[in-house]
Amino acid sequence: MDHLLYIAMSGAKENMNGIAVRANNLANSSTVGFKADFEQARSMQAFGEGLPTRVFSLTERPGQNFDAGAIITTDRDLDVAIQGEGWMAVQAPDGNEAYTRAGNLQINAFGMLETASGLAVLGDDGPIQLPVPLAKIEIAPDGTVSALAQGAPADAIELVGRIKLVKPVNSDMEKGTDGLFRRKDGQIAEADINVSLLKGAVESSNVNAVGEMTYMISLQRQFELQVKMMKSAEEMDRQQNQLLRIVG
């Protein structure tokens, strides 16, 4: 009896975890540069005294969907979209280098170029610093950033840095809980001159909202089925106990 209950219980738990993955994808369907997470379940044998005959389900995230999202034109000077494969280097909250395709950039009060979430955009020599107050900024396809300080002559625009663009193999990349990508081996990716930017545009999320909603409905139905199985196991156990009392 406990075999049935064990399987149903673990299945319901992992259905909930799967729903959480799909819900997170849906919540980020409008997030610039977001890459959808995959979700799958597999059987795992339980170890321990008296448990080798028990098998439970385990939900895992085998990877992400690296397909490019749609390019949305914004005509904003600080918006850039990576054309084709590639990533933009940023400074993660822990101070280490990480990678993103979210190109909706901004300039903070101290003149530092950063992402919409406040992460410093890295250049060849670290974070890119701009003169403030700023009159004009230009970002070239190769990531070169030029700026004109407010009050300076129009021909005084100066080169302030170059956004570090990298192109590691997608299979070597993994996404952290912070939504940023890193190399699986922990190494820093080398800059790649073949990666180019499209100015005045951003890459949208690659989440298929309809598909994610369909998966969620399927997982919810599976969850309901698992709950019914647990109730059936409870009822069978109750009837079994009644039968034993009658026989006794």
From TrEMBL:
Location of the protein in the cell: Bacterial flagellum basal body
Flagellar hook protein FlgE/F/G-like D1 domain segment(s): 81-147
BP term (GO), one: bacterial-type flagellum-dependent swarming motility
UniProt keyword terms in alphabetical order: Bacterial flagellum, Cell projection, Cilium, Flagellum
SUPFAM superfamilies recorded: Flagellar hook protein flgE (SSF117143)
Residue span(s) of domain Flagellar basal-body/hook protein C-terminal: 199-243
Coiled coil: none
Domain Flagellar basal body rod protein N-terminal: 5-35
Quaternary structure note: The basal body constitutes a major portion of the flagellar organelle and consists of five rings (E,L,P,S, and M) mounted on a central rod. The rod consists of about 26 subunits of FlgG in the distal portion, and FlgB, FlgC and FlgF are thought to build up the proximal portion of the rod with about 6 subunits each.
Family membership noted in the UniProt record: Belongs to the flagella basal body rod proteins family.
Annotated protein name in UniProt: Flagellar basal-body rod protein FlgF
Organism: Rheinheimera sp. BAL341
Lineage summary: Bacteria, Pseudomonadati, Pseudomonadota, Gammaproteobacteria, Chromatiales
